[in-house]
């Protein structure tokens, strides 16, 4: 009976160790899968930031739209604000859809992890049940004592005693694994509930934003219909704008030519001044030599050689006059290079708003078969919005043109920025300005549209401002 009891306890310990090892391996594999299948939180956070930024843009555009809607008559400014809001609204819905994909992926992964943990827990409980059942057969004190005293030697006795202790420890470890797995399962179930609630909330938001999109489309169609009924007025407005643009183009061209000529004159004057200074220095040097005696007869052969130093030094050649670009001084060259280095990172001329009409040639938003050309970009903003210099420079021109209101032109070396449609101006010609310095306020039309015309030039070449302005406002 002793031998039989000994073999039963030994077999039980072996089975127990194997079962515990399998349970640990299963739980470790399940937790490793949970780590490797986690969604990239960084990308999800970026989507959330993008959605918040778009919602902020929608709020700004809504304020601008409200100002244009105060007038009963539909206007292009109102249509442009609706288009911008519609575009941003689509971006919001697209971002929400991307976020939903992440949430749905998280829900699926968490559900899979819950299922795997439940299977692991069931396996651990089954193994523990088999262990308890097997141990119950040899659990009484008599069998343990007989198992110990049946040892052939003292060393074997100590070894069997160690087995019994390991048996107790393994049971405790198995029970701890079950408790840990149950706790892990409870945490996963809680996370799954949270993710499902987040998904439900995001779906509700998506439905609401989709309804807003449909409302905006309806409003846009209504405004287009009203504007289509005002074709004669739109054509008259377009003709007036084209005349104003032509006057502005002429003003810019004249100021650029004048600045090119002025810089060339300054360069020539500086070159002549330096040449005169060198000639004077050469004459002083010649006058300081020892004169010949009156009785000495100059050697004809050496006369030409002696007269050479006294001859007037050749004047420095004036720089060739350029008619296509500004002649830069060392200071303006540094400023011009700094402006060019900040391409794509320049400050916006207004703190808030959107581009209502882009650079170049494009179709009229209402009139069919009509192409309009824009030398810069129109930035629609709020009434009374301050206009600021986008970079350090010098105010070259302050003028007023019918259809463009007040205009400020700032020079940045060989680059020029033009700010038109200003209600008021707070700078003067020749004044040095710093980046972010206010130069005026935007003009608001009778239709309630507050719009800034902004242009960028390099000498006589017209540039696309969108390539120069920062994407972040």
UniProtKB/TrEMBL annotation:
Residues 277-317 have a biased composition (Low complexity). One of its GO terms (molecular function) is metalloendopeptidase activity. Residues 1-25 form the signal peptide. Residues 65-134, 224-254 form a coiled coil. InterPro entries: Cell_wall_metabolism_enzyme (IPR050570), Dup_hybrid_motif (IPR011055), M23ase_b-sheet_dom (IPR016047). Residues 374-465 form the M23ase beta-sheet core domain. The keyword Mitochondrion does not apply. Residues 30-51, 277-326 are annotated as: Disordered. It holds the Pfam family Peptidase_M23. Keywords: Coiled coil, Hydrolase, Signal. It comes from the Bacteria. PANTHER family: L-ALA--D-GLU ENDOPEPTIDASE (PTHR21666:SF289), PEPTIDASE-RELATED (PTHR21666). This is Septal ring factor EnvC, activator of murein hydrolases AmiA and AmiB.
């Amino acid at each position: 009976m002793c031998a039989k009891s000994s073999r039963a306890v030994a077999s039980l310990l072996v089975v127990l160790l194997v079962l515990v090892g399998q349970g640990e391996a299963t739980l470790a594999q399940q937790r490793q899968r949970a780590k490797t299948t986690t969604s990239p939180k960084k990308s999800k956070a970026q989507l959330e930031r993008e959605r918040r930024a778009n919602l902020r843009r929608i709020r700004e555009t809504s304020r601008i739209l409200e100002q244009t809607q105060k007038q009963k008559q539909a206007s292009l400014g109102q249509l442009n604000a609706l288009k911008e809001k519609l575009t941003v609204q689509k971006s919001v819905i697209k971002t929400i859809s991307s976020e939903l994909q992440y949430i749905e992926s998280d829900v699926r992964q968490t559900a899979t992890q819950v299922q795997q943990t439940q299977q692991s827990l069931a396996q651990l409980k089954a193994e523990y049940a088999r262990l308890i059942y097997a141990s119950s057969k040899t659990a009484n004190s008599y069998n343990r004592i007989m198992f110990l005293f049946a040892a052939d030697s003292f060393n074997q006795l100590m070894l069997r005693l160690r087995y019994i202790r390991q048996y107790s420890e393994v049971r405790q470890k198995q029970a701890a694994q079950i408790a840990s797995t149950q706790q892990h399962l409870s945490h996963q179930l809680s996370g799954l509930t949270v993710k499902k609630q987040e998904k439900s909330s995001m779906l509700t938001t998506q439905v609401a934003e989709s309804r807003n999109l449909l409302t905006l489309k309806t409003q846009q169609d209504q405004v287009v219909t009203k504007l289509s009924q005002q074709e004669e007025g739109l054509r008259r407005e377009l003709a007036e704008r084209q005349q104003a643009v032509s006057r502005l183009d002429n003003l810019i061209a004249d100021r650029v030519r004048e600045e090119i000529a002025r810089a060339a004159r300054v360069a020539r004057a500086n070159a002549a001044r330096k040449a005169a200074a060198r000639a004077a220095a050469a004459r002083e040097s010649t006058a300081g030599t020892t004169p010949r005696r009156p009785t000495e007869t100059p050697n004809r052969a050496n006369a030409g050689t002696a007269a050479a130093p006294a001859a007037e030094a050749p004047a420095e050649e004036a720089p060739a006059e350029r008619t296509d670009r500004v002649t830069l001084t060392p200071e303006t060259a540094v400023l011009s290079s700094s402006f060019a280095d900040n391409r794509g990172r320049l400050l916006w001329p207004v703190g808030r708003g959107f581009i209502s009409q882009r650079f170049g040639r494009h179709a009229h938003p209402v009139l069919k078969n009509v192409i309009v050309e824009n030398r810069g970009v129109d930035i629609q903003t709020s009434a009374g919005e301050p206009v600021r210099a986008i970079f350090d420079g010098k105010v070259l021109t302050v003028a007023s043109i019918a259809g463009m209101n007040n205009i400020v032109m700032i020079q940045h070396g060989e680059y020029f920025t033009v700010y038109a449609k200003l209600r008021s101006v707070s700078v003067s010609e020749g004044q040095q300005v710093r980046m972010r310095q206010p130069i005026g306020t935007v003009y608001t039309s009778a239709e309630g549209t507050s719009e800034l015309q902004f242009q960028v030039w390099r000498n006589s070449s017209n540039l696309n401002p969108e390539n120069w302005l920062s994407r972040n406002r």
